[in-house]
Amino acid sequence: MCVSESVESWCSIPLHTFQLGSMSTNNSPTADVDNTAVLHLGIGRPYQTIMLENEAFSCFVFYSVLLVIKMYIIAIITGQVRLRKKAFANPEDAQRHGGVQYYREDPDVERCRRAHRNDMENIFPFLFLGAVYSLIGPSLAVARAHFLVFFLFRMLHTVAYLCVLRAPTRSLAYVVAQVPCVSMAVQVLAAVASSW
Amino acid sequence: MCVSESVESWCSIPLHTFQLGSMSTNNSPTADVDNTAVLHLGIGRPYQTIMLENEAFSCFVFYSVLLVIKMYIIAIITGQVRLRKKAFANPEDAQRHGGVQYYREDPDVERCRRAHRNDMENIFPFLFLGAVYSLIGPSLAVARAHFLVFFLFRMLHTVAYLCVLRAPTRSLAYVVAQVPCVSMAVQVLAAVASSW
Amino acid sequence: MCVSESVESWCSIPLHTFQLGSMSTNNSPTADVDNTAVLHLGIGRPYQTIMLENEAFSCFVFYSVLLVIKMYIIAIITGQVRLRKKAFANPEDAQRHGGVQYYREDPDVERCRRAHRNDMENIFPFLFLGAVYSLIGPSLAVARAHFLVFFLFRMLHTVAYLCVLRAPTRSLAYVVAQVPCVSMAVQVLAAVASSW
């Protein structure tokens, strides 16, 4: 991050680099020049770019988006298993794929759905906790450790679920992934409480 | 808040243009004047107003809130179908509406619940992806296109689900609505990666 | 946008009060000194701290994190009921706890799962609506009332669900908790619409 140079030369900042309400930045090439919506904070970069300069937040976003993509992949897998096992949740789908007798449940489909639901129960709260935790100014190394542990053990949870790994593997992955979540929740509560 | 010292040393800045900790703005009529919690960014408007001046974020918030309201409406419809079909998920509810024999499942209720669950699987990740995507400074036109496609095809998805439209309509709406989500996920990953 | 006046007089700001890119703050003891990622906004505190100085947002975060912890507790209760009733969702879990005959459903487990799902349907949207609502600059007192009503009636909802309270209690708690959510949704839509 080469911010020091620009800070040093702030006395001579041309006003056009400090404009509020235009979006003629060099690092967002798709920017609409007439867009009057973005706050420049004195360094020629839009507000959004600065937002992402919170490295803990960047790190959180990186792992979160990967986890969201993982959830999308579970949805695709569920659809594929439905097609392969011919087990559809809706009669109109069954009708289209061979007949209403395929409007039925299937254990493999249900397994995918449980994996997906468990992700919703755990990854969605992480999307909230991780974002708020990033805002309270954690050490980057500590924050990264939280996010990485959650990411790795949620990946393991999904693999253990879909590949039917031996019994406590999935539960263990779930428990370990909860540790950084509870840690973040406690730290956020402490930060909010201390600000009161 | 011991900001006054540093504010005082900013000597040449007119205090009213950079006040930290008062909320006497003209554009939030509900503002509590004694509220010392809002950061003014030098232009007499609260931090929050500036946040919403990110037009891509505003646009995202607009469609997102409509989608959340849509999900609330599905919940209401589910309740109405439960009452009309007399199919309750809990014995205590059934007891209150005619007897424990109405503690049972019903295909129409299950259809509503699947529509609701599918929304959770797809709209909740959008709430995250869209917010983060708005922060990386997209073109307003491109961002609006992403949000609008998602919004329209999720609306179509719900209509197709609840009205039992012909078979590939619902699946098609799901797939098309996923396109802007995957696009946003990829762009956010690229933005985060390039900031490292 | 009349920022130019204040910007012109910024040459007299001591650089150390406006450093961008170092994180040597006194109020985040865990901060990594070499972390160049945090934006200081001229007052010696990191961006994140200022974020939490939005008291409505702080208040929202406080109740939200408590609700997330409540959801985690429901998950733990579900697991305990599964163990006590010997009713497992996966054959591999049943195998490990006495045999595949315990791969079965149980009404008490299903009750916990319904409570958890209802939380997902309602608390997750709150995590979004409350955050955005905090950003539009509500009165702290009004915002706190919104969050507190939601928090209290979602707690009541869970108690009513898990303890099988008499019939309309749970539904009533659900309805009352929806009131602040719909109110926030309407206010956010109004704020976004007025900014266009």
Automatic annotation (TrEMBL), chains A, B, C:
Name of the protein this chain belongs to: Prostaglandin E synthase
Cofactor: glutathione
Purpose of the protein: Terminal enzyme of the cyclooxygenase (COX)-2-mediated prostaglandin E2 (PGE2) biosynthetic pathway. Catalyzes the glutathione-dependent oxidoreduction of prostaglandin endoperoxide H2 (PGH2) to prostaglandin E2 (PGE2) in response to inflammatory stimuli. Plays a key role in inflammation response, fever and pain. Also catalyzes the oxidoreduction of endocannabinoids into prostaglandin glycerol esters and PGG2 into 15-hydroperoxy-PGE2.
Membrane topology, record value: Multi-pass membrane protein
EC number: 2.5.1.18, 5.3.99.3
Gene Ontology process terms (BP): prostaglandin biosynthetic process
Family from the record: Belongs to the MAPEG family.
GO terms of molecular function: glutathione transferase activity; oxidoreductase activity; prostaglandin-E synthase activity
Pfam families listed in its UniProt record: MAPEG (PF01124)
Keyword Phosphoprotein: no
InterPro entries: MAPEG-like_dom_sf (IPR023352), Membr-assoc_MAPEG (IPR001129), MGST1-like (IPR040162)
Localization (cell): Cytoplasm, Perinuclear region; Membrane
Transmembrane parts of this sequence: 60-78, 123-141, 147-165, 172-193
GO CC annotation, single: perinuclear region of cytoplasm
Keywords: Cytoplasm, Fatty acid biosynthesis, Fatty acid metabolism, Isomerase, Lipid biosynthesis, Lipid metabolism, Membrane, Oxidoreductase, Prostaglandin biosynthesis, Prostaglandin metabolism, Transferase, Transmembrane, Transmembrane helix
Pathway assignment: Lipid metabolism; prostaglandin biosynthesis
Catalytic activity: prostaglandin H2 = prostaglandin E2; prostaglandin G2 = (15S)-15-hydroperoxy-prostaglandin E2; 2-glyceryl-prostaglandin H2 = 2-glyceryl-prostaglandin E2; (5S)-hydroperoxy-(6E,8Z,11Z,14Z)-eicosatetraenoate + 2 glutathione = (5S)-hydroxy-(6E,8Z,11Z,14Z)-eicosatetraenoate + glutathione disulfide + H2O
Source species taxonomy: Eukaryota, Metazoa, Chordata, Craniata, Vertebrata
Highest taxon, organism lineage: Eukaryota
Isomerase as UniProt keyword: yes
